[in-house]
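Exercise 3.2. Students should predict the tertiary structure of the chain below and write it as structure tokens, then compare their answer with the key that follows.

Predict this chain's 3D structure.
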Amino acid sequence: MPELPEMENYRKLLSERIIGRTVTDTEVTREKSINVTPERWAQELIGQAVSRIDRRAKHLLFRLTTGNVLVLHLMLGGMMFYGKAEEKPDRSVQVRLGFGDRHLFFIGLRLGYLHLLDPSEVEELMNKLGPEPFDPGLTPERFAERLRVKAGTLKSNLVDQGVFAGIGNCYSDEICYHAGLLPSRRPNALSDEELHRLYRSMREVLMEATQGGGYMEMPLFVGDSLTGGFDSRCRVYDREGEPCVRCGGPIARRDVSSKKSFCCLVCQR
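Answer key:
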């Protein structure tokens, strides 16, 4: 599932390509992927342009010239592709936005969605989320305060969008590995030094992953050499049985809080 780095990568790359461009046509092949009728969808979108693209947690917010917003959550299996019709991957498209001879294809939106909302609805939805990992207000002290009061494990809290927004299965494991902590640790049992280390690791891992294009190898357009570039640099996620790059011990898979998790049982404490 795309997480903060993947969606931030999409945001940056799409901003360079579609901001200011007018939607010339649209097509919906799966009505459950949107929240209004296809007729209203076309009426609201055709002739409008995307004025800005924001990201909040794992969502992209396509802000339209009307003031309304397209809110995207790709969920499991979702992806996007931008280009000509003959260039798109051979996969089913649930929603398409046309920009002249180029199109933005929303693919694999079986669990995900692309909803048309007004600003108040967007605010209500986003207010349910916790702070962003790079929010200036999320200081090391505030980070520690939010975790200390939580039950559960590091894994369950790092992926909880109400605690911190944008982290999922992959990066929760990568952050714990970077910090030298097992995902099964209890937040309220961590020392001040361990919490500070976890905070630094969260920011360093997410920054590196974002700059590297995220871990999902699904190019956004023909010639896209950035998207998915971080996959080969994941230290533990989906690396079961491979040697730890730090100590040489085998990477193990363990279910933590009913979620698959990868770690090094030798050098993570």
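Discussion points: The mean pLDDT is 97. The domain at 4-126 is CATH 3.20.190.10 (N-terminal domain of MutM-like DNA repair proteins).
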